[in-house]
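User: Show me an example of a complex going from sequences to structure tokens.

Assistant: Sure. Here are the input components:
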Amino acid sequence: MKHQEGLTTYLASFIEEIVSSGVTEVVISPGSRSTPIAMLLMEHPKVHTYINIDERSAAFFALGLAKQMRRPAAVLCTSGTAAANYFPAIAEARISRVPLIVLTADRPHELREVGAPQAIDQLHLYGKHVKWFAEMPVPEIGEEVLRFVKATAARAVSHAEQAPAGPVHINFPLREPLIPRLEPSPFSLEEGAKRLNTVQGKLMLSEEEIKDLIEPLKGIEKGLIVCGVIDEPGFAEAVLMLSKKLGYPVLADPLSQLRSGFFQGDDIIDNYDSIFKDAKIAAELKPEAVIRFGGMPVSKPLTLLLKEHDDILHIVVDGGNGWRDPLKMATHMVNCDEKAFCMQMAGQLNEVKESNWLHKWKEINRITTETIINIMEAEQNMDEGKVVMELVKQLPENSTVFVGNSMPIRDIDTFYHFNQKNIRIMANRGANGIDGVVSSALGASVYAEPLFLIIGDLSFFHDMNGLLAAKMHHLNINIILINNNGGGIFSFLPQAKEPKHFETLFGTPTDLNFEHAARLYDGRYAKVQNWDDFHSAVSQALEWKGLNVVEVPTNRNLNVQAHRKMWNQVSQEISDYLNGDEA
Amino acid sequence: MKHQEGLTTYLASFIEEIVSSGVTEVVISPGSRSTPIAMLLMEHPKVHTYINIDERSAAFFALGLAKQMRRPAAVLCTSGTAAANYFPAIAEARISRVPLIVLTADRPHELREVGAPQAIDQLHLYGKHVKWFAEMPVPEIGEEVLRFVKATAARAVSHAEQAPAGPVHINFPLREPLIPRLEPSPFSLEEGAKRLNTVQGKLMLSEEEIKDLIEPLKGIEKGLIVCGVIDEPGFAEAVLMLSKKLGYPVLADPLSQLRSGFFQGDDIIDNYDSIFKDAKIAAELKPEAVIRFGGMPVSKPLTLLLKEHDDILHIVVDGGNGWRDPLKMATHMVNCDEKAFCMQMAGQLNEVKESNWLHKWKEINRITTETIINIMEAEQNMDEGKVVMELVKQLPENSTVFVGNSMPIRDIDTFYHFNQKNIRIMANRGANGIDGVVSSALGASVYAEPLFLIIGDLSFFHDMNGLLAAKMHHLNINIILINNNGGGIFSFLPQAKEPKHFETLFGTPTDLNFEHAARLYDGRYAKVQNWDDFHSAVSQALEWKGLNVVEVPTNRNLNVQAHRKMWNQVSQEISDYLNGDEA
């Protein structure tokens, strides 16, 4: 009984402290060694648990949950390879700055590295891919130990949340027997039961430092604000205020959350990817200063443009101290909270600026939007870009769209235009893997409705196991499955010109009939061959609850051709404008 | 062109050297950064490539291949979370001593930790879970560099093979453009092209050291030889020779490969799991000496018996220097190749010993087999143990049976008896995960036919993606899917007595109709409700090529009850014999 009492008090203390630190969502994978933690989590009245049998999917599910909620979610698994399955989601969470509390049960010290079953070395299991690792002591009773347990719990949550947010790993060696006491409840649950209150500071600049940054910007008309992956409430308003003061257009990646919202989008440029496709146009639009926020935007033409000019002011602002400058073009690396930076800068800049530069940008952006819309309206084929445009038309206000990597995120970049429906775009743009996307979207769907996932067939396949969560937890998700039967992105890359081995290594057609996958998880399934069918299927998906899969068969080659043709026409229209403009 | 030439010569040298070191099987996952390695591997006439889209499955597929062939297989993937997906299979390979060559493409140094896309920190990515890690230089031409590349290739294979065999990781930073030259062929391919020849030594004892180990065994009649997980050709013959000389019975785990073969099985005890279930009988069979080989046997009653007796000679022999003594009962830790140990010991022992002890063991084992057979022959329900017995009846000579973890491996332990069909039993008994089992079996199936996989529903679900390999590579596999709709093993564990949360946390019924899964991968599917159906389905599976899924619905509760009842009767029969024997 002493063992059980120690086990229970110790683990209940930990759980109580993470819960009062704000962790209420826990994704649990079944296992034996983790039994007491799992049972106590089930027992805590404030904890929502999600059983997920495949640990890889479980961790991505938690990632999606945490990303959507903008606060930490936890995962729990047993010892052994179970824990290794968390690795992809952890690597993604680290780079995309998603707070995760990773709890792993472990064999106690005497069963490590001695050939005991289901024992792998779990110390620092995820290496540098977690922000913090703590090995817990074997459960015991004692005032100091319990204070340590509570402090560690609070600390884990704090480390996960502190910018840059990310995953932390706590490893629990547990001895048998593994059954905790449940009656009477081991939780005290009084208000104010939280032992250690944590307060999170942010990186901020002094007025002087801000002044020094404004100085070189003075007199520069041709500036660009580039917003990459960033998801902070209030950032949109702050950066738009700064842009007004500077008179710089805001090039907004779809994951900057600037392409949709209840704010004015006048200065937002959403077509730079298509605009910069033409090198001559890109050269004409050479900026003299760039202020960049967030992770690198998805657009390759933008990247190439930024890399072109070594002789301009290039300010990178990062509240997470991440040194995010893959181009090595930064002239100023500013470690400062992004929202604070914008507000401080805007506060010191008095006038609102109007400029030819800004006007030209807006015109080019408008022309590009019109051209793309005109071409796509006439498109009869099931074009992957048009899928984005047609879907957006049907989205209700406050929808969430989770976007797969590889082609879908690029199509969103090109074809998703500013709107005021307050749509939230989400994606796993840390390591940009095609893995775990289904589970991440399902995690996000817990508190986001309606939620659409746009995903390619290979990425859908990669995390098909994730769909079990939809069935087990009665989640509502509408999956637009773009099936080009293989790896569509490679058709846009240099290897497409090397026909030898191309289809085997990169095309990789799987010829899967995904209707079986939808049926396996009790999902509704529709395959659409034309745009009328597509609209009906999306409407029905919006009406029905549960898992809806709308499969859109597309053709990799036609898709590349159509997009190249469209970009040529965009370039032509912009050139005409620029020539007229200059004449 | 200089870049392409450097890239090509450098990578072709590496590939040529691993191939001439014996690596011919490479599992490739599609990706961009890995393009030149993938294309060159496809181009090498001696390399067999297997495309596998899900990297987690890919690595387990390679593990199964390597395990079956008893030589290294390689995997290749692109940068980012792709590589993290290899982690579970790598952790398993490390503990179960399977040689794997893990090749990962990486971003070059200037794109690391600067927010570049698809870049995670891949240096020492798998931590202590690989035997060796090497970071390669960025490809360049130069005599010393090329010698280094070839030496690293040979070294990687050697490290992977050297006891204890295991995974090694080689990371290749590659710069764009990523297309190698294919014409003319970059491979020289002359016989003898191998640059660095490696010679693997084994741990061996001197005659004196052997003599010192024989000394304390002299005069001990009640000895046991315990063979756990070990898969070395010739070991069976060697250990049986030793057992004859010592007069000790050989307690053989199913993964010792001692339960089937063309050798005599007189001294092999295959029922110790059932025998030791009764504590009183176990006490009566207390040994005075134990010699143990291989990884820990699956049997918990055996483990408990071995842990009971601190006052006996306990010799652990391990050619991989693994300190495999989770019980902490060893009196002698012998770091010596197991086969060499047996042969040296047997060589110094002159007579063949007969003893009452050995006679008693054989009788008890015989009685147990008879009892189990009698009970199971009468069983009408779809009992999980009986599945093993009925399947074995139908297995052709030289079949391979891959066994899932959790319940199937325990059922094999209890219900699989010595036979001379030369059946090879395989399982992932390093970390004992339920993950990756389908892929491991499919990897094994490449060169093993017929191959049966016995697997539970949760484990089958966990690696369902692995089935794509069956479809894409036209593999032949017969899957006996034991569907008890959840985690059957937990019904045998203490938490089964705690009904609160049990079904949610441990039972975890998924209610999946697996026919959809079989159909998704173009597999044949049969659900069997009685033994006649079962036999027909197995016969048909043996005739048909491709993927066959035979689903056996079972009942977790009935299964526990039936097995407990059977063990009670076994104990009764043995007690009767022992009482009569002693009378």
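The lines above are the inputs; the final block is the predicted structure for all two components together. Chain B has a mean pLDDT of 95.
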